[in-house]
Amino acid sequence: MNITQEQLEAKLKQIAEFEEKYGTDHGQTNVYAMKKYCTDPKYRERVAAFNKASIETIKHYIRYGY
After folding, report:
1. Mean pLDDT across the stretch 5-24?
2. With the CA atoms of 50, 54, 56 and 59 taken in that order, what torsion angle do they form, in degrees rounded to the nearest 10?
3. Which of 3, 14, 35, 64 stands the most exposed, by the fewest C-beta atoms within 10 Å?
4. Distance (Å, rounded) from C-alpha 10 to C-alpha 31?
5. SS3 string of 19-42?
6. pTM of the predicted model as reported, rounded to 2 decimal places
């Protein structure tokens, strides 16, 4: 899935609005992760690699079992 720069900027705007409403110390790890995903290209690469490895592992278990 290709995410455009406009989509990343829109998500960062949503995060900024959320943090304005609830503060930056809100304890929502998914907000921290999404903020890092939008701002760090290396993090996006690692997420994509993890997702791909997870899919391949699931395919293996479906095909061959444990």
Report:
1. 94
2. -170
3. 64
4. 14
5. HHHHCCCCCCHHHHHHHHHHHCHH
6. 0.77
Q: What is the pLDDT of residues 19-60, one digit of tens each?
A: 999 888 888 889 999 999 999 999 999 999 999 999 999 999
Please give the structure tokens belonging to residue 46.
């690692």
Cβ-based neighbours of 38, under 8 Å, separated by 6 or more: 8, 9, 11, 12, 15
Fill in the amino acid letter for 58.
Answer: I
- Report domain extents, the chain: 5-64
User: 38: buried, middle or exposed (CB in 10 Å: 19+, 13-18, 0-12)?
Assistant: buried
Residues 6+ apart with CB under 8 A from 20: none
Q: Which strand (E) or helix (H) includes residue 44?
A: helix 41-64
